[in-house]
Amino acid sequence: APHLLGIEHLGQDEITALIDLADRYAEDNRRGVAHRDVLAGLTQINMFFENSTRTQASFELAGQRLGADVMNMGIASSSVKKGETLIDTALTLNAMRPDLLVVRHPNSGAVDLLAQKVNCAVLNAGDGRHEHPTQALLDALTIRRAKVRLHRLSIAICGDIAHSRVARSNIMLLGKMENRVRLIAPPTLMPSGVADFGVEVFDDMREGLRDVDVVMMLRLQKERMDGGFIPSEREYFHRYGLDAEKLAHAKPDAIVMHPGPMNRGVEIDGTLADDINRSVIQEQVEMGVAVRMAAMDMLARNLREARKAGAVPA
Ligand code: CP
After folding, report:
1. Torsion of CA 169, 170, 171, 176, to 10 degrees
2. pLDDT-derived band of residue 284, with 50, 70 and 90 as boundaries?
3. Alpha-carbon gap, residue 154 to 169, rounded angstroms
4. In terms of Cα–Cα distance, which of 53, 25, 50, 54 is closest to 39?
5. How many CB atoms lie under 10 A from the CB of residue 76?
6. Where is pLDDT greater, at 76 or 121?
7. What's the pLDDT score for residue 268?
8. Which H or E run includes 202?
9. Which ligand 1 atom sits closest to the C-alpha of 56?
10. Which letter does DSSP use for residue 274 in this model?
11. DSSP 3-state assignment of 85?
């Protein structure tokens, strides 16, 4: 079956097609134009084994706006709590014949593994430190709407890169679209081997932000720092937190992004996050619904074709 497991598997044309379609959905969402026929008759199951506000809510809304029957698995009240494995849970749900399975899981690679066991389309809603493809797509759409293009831009991704699936998916997408990507992080939060991705690496915010078009901040992911070095929040904000003074080193029209959830006063100054002249954080959330509509629309079309051709059981 067709899946959306990572940006890794997408080419430039597929990324552009998804963003173009999402842009049209974004405009229709603003105008209140409904598209309830697109996923009519299809069943979407959302399985979130890790907390989420934005991704889960927007996948649910996206499915509803396209007319799917949407079911949210309540993991906390499910048999997962009795020790049922991911694969057994997936096979159980697969037997209920869903068409779209949206999965978030704390383990890198868990969603890929699950996709091999089911015969419906699987969308990765974030797996461990690996990928968060719809986040990168919604970030790309937000950037393109603000900057009118999605190539030859200078984009800084700042903060806890080592633990970030958002950074990983964005580095791949922005690189594939021929942008200049800079990573800014303390050495302890910079993954090794990033230079292989064709990015520039900095540990000083002011240096790294010089003349960039886009500043993408990341959350300090303490829950993934299992026993390792956790910086003090005050010290971290002083050196790596984005505020108006550090932002002044970027281009005067540089936009500020954050995937959320954000820690105000840790990686970003709260007043700057709310400054609608610089921050596109709320637009990112809005684009999240449109991108998920586009992704499910495309996968559903591919799924119908695969079923018609007999490649996937109907
Ligand atoms: N950006 C993002 O994935 O947010 P949630 O964890 O709230 O879904």
Report:
1. 90
2. very high
3. 17
4. 25
5. 8
6. 121
7. 98
8. strand 200-202
9. 8
10. T
11. coil
Here the tokens at position 187 are 């050495």
Q: Is the CB of 55 under 6 A from ligand 1?
A: yes
For residue 53 and ligand 1, the question of a CB distance below 6 A is answered with yes
First to last CA, the chain: 11
Residue 281 or 232, more confident? 281
Q: H or E segment at 285?
A: helix 281-308
pLDDT of residue 255: 98
What dihedral do alpha carbons 54, 274, 157, 55 form, nearest 10°?
A: 0
The share of the chain scoring above pLDDT 70, in percent, equals: 98
Q: Is 271 exposed, middle or buried (0-12, 13-18, 19+ CB in 10 A)?
A: exposed
Burial (CB count <10 Å: 0-12, 13-18, 19+), residue 264: middle
**Residue written as tokens 């637009």?**
283
59 vs 68: CA distance, rounded Å: 11
Protein residue closest via CA to atom 6 of ligand 1: 52
**More confidently predicted of 229 and 37:** 37
Peptide bond into 187 cis (omega under 30): no
* Closest protein CA for atom 5 of ligand 1: 52
Sequence-distant (≥ 6) Cβ neighbours of residue 19 within 8 angstroms: 137, 140, 141, 144, 150, 291, 294
Give residue 186's identity as a one-letter amino acid code.
P
User: Coil, strand, or helix at residue 99?
Assistant: coil
Rounded distance from Cα 283 to ligand 1 centre (Å): 14
Integer Cα distance of 1 and 305 in angstroms: 10
Q: Which of 255, 282, 216, 297 minimizes the C-alpha distance to 22?
A: 297
Measured distance CA(17)–CA(19) in Å, rounded = 6
Residue with tokens 């002249």: 277
Residue 180, ligand 1, Cβ within 6 A: no
pLDDT for 224 beyond 80: no
Interatomic CA distance for residues 215 and 228, integer angstroms? 27
What's the rounded Cα separation, in Å, for the pair 260 and 56?
13
